[in-house]
Amino acid sequence: MWIERQVEARLRRSAATRPVTVMTGARQTGKTSTLLHLFPNYDFVSLDLPTEAEQAEKEPVRFLERHPAPLIIDEVQYAPGIFRNLKAVVDVHRSVPGQFLLTGSQKFVLMKSVSESLAGRADIVELETLSLREMRAALPETMLETAIVKGGFPELYANPEIDSVAFYNSYLATYLERDVRSLANVGSLRDFERFLRACALRSANLLNKAELARDVGISPSTANLWLSMLEASGQVVLLEPWFSNRTKSLVKTPKLYLSDTGLLCALLNIRSVEALLQTPSAGAVWETFVFAQLRARERAAGRKGALFFWRDQFREVDFAVDAGGNLELIEAKWTELPDAGDAVNIEFVSAALRRSGATKGAIVCRAPHSYRFASGIRVLPVGELQ
C-alpha cells in the first residue's frame, strides 16, 4: 500500500525547476521509496552498497559515466568525494532541471558537502516520519493513542502485519551499528544507547547537557558530541525559546524532543496503548507528539524557523508560532477535557506580549471536538491543527 506524503508536490516542483534535489531525514522515513514512487523513469543507485560507494568516492568520473542523469543516488553521504564532480556535470547543463535526486540520512555530513559544492544548484527537502494527517489519509480508522505508540515510520502502516516492538528493536540495533559508528568513533555503543535512553526520559524538557553527562557517566564534551550526532541523524530535535529584546528574564536554553513518539515509546518501554494510559510520562509523550504535528504543519505551510517555546523564570507555554509578527501560543495537554486553569499561562503571556504584536492561543488535547473558552482561547483536537 502506498501512503501519500505531503511533501510530494514540493518534490515534483523541485525536480521540475532545480538541477539537484537533496532529500534528508532519519533512516526509514521513506526517502528512497518516495523518490522511486514519484520518479519511476530515473535510474537508481544506492551507496549503501560498499562497492558503489567506493567507486563514487575514489573514481567519481567513472561512476557518473556508469550512472548518467537523470539519476537517484541513495545515501550519498557515504561518498563525499562525488560532490565536486556532480557540480561539474550539473554545470554543463545548468538550465536542465531534475538531473540528480540525492538522499541522505546523516544531515550534518550531507549538508556540509552540499554547501561546499552544490550551493545555488540544490534544493533541500526534509522528510520526517508520518504525520497524523498522513496516517489517517491512508488508514482512516487509525486511533490517536495507537498512532502515538506505533509512531510514524511508514513501513508500519504500509504493512500492518509488522510487529512494531520487533521493528523498533531492529531499528535501534541498526542505527547504533551503522549511523553511530560512521558518524564518530564511539568507544562504547552500550554507553551511547544509555545516552539515547536518557534523552528519551528528558523529551519535552529543557536540555541540561551537564545533567545528561553525569547520569550516563560521560564527559560534558562527549555528551555535546553525541547530542550533535543524534541531531545529525534525525533522532532528536532541539526547540529554541522565543524572546524579544523588550522582554527580560527569559530562559534561553533549548528544549529537547525525540523526533518520533514510536521510537520514544520504545525507549521508554511503553509497548501498548494500555501502558501509555498508565505511564506517568504520558504528558511528555503527548507534548512530543504535538510537537511533531506542529513541525509537519509548519513544513506544509512553507514556514521555516517559526516554531519556538516561551518560558521565563516562573511560567512556560509549550509552543509559540511566530508568523510574521503574529504569535500563536499553544499548550499541549494530555487531558480529554481541559478547563480554564489549563489556559492560565497562555492568558498571562498574551497579556505580557500584547504590545509586541497580536497573539492567539489554543490548547491541543485529546478532546473529541473543538470549542472555545470564554476568554477566546480555543480547545483543539490534535487532528485539527492546521
Keywords for this structure?
6-stranded mixed β-sheet; 44% helix; 5-stranded parallel β-sheet; Trna Endonuclease, Chain: A, domain 1; globular; Rossmann fold; alpha/beta; single chain; 386 residues
Question: Could you characterize the architecture of this molecule?
Answer:
- The structure is a single chain.
- With 386 residues, this protein is an alpha/beta fold.
- The chain folds into three domains: 8-126, Rossmann fold; 132-238 and 253-282, no CATH class; 296-384, 3-Layer(aba) Sandwich (Trna Endonuclease, Chain: A, domain 1), CATH 3.40.1350.
- 44% of the residues lie in helices and 17% in strands.
- The chain has helices spanning 8-17, 31-38, 50-58, 60-66, 83-92, 107-117, 132-138, 144-150, 155-158, 164-183, 189-201, 209-216, 220-232, 261-267, 273-278, 282-300, 344-352; strands spanning 20-24, 43-46, 71-74, 100-104, 122-126, 205-206, 236-239, 255-258, 307-311, 316-323, 326-332, 359-365, 371-372, 378-381.
- The strands form three sheets. It has a six-stranded mixed beta sheet with strand order 9-10-11-12-14-13, sandwiched between helices. Strands 2-3-4-1-5 form a five-stranded parallel beta sheet, with helices on both faces. A three-stranded antiparallel beta sheet has the order 6-8-7.
- A hairpin with a 2-residue loop joins strand 10 (316-323) and strand 11 (326-332).
- Helix 3 crosses helix 4, helix 8 (144-150) packs across helix 14 and helix 11 (189-201) crosses helix 12 (209-216).
- It is globular, with a radius of gyration of 22 Å.
- The model has no long low-confidence stretch (mean pLDDT 91).
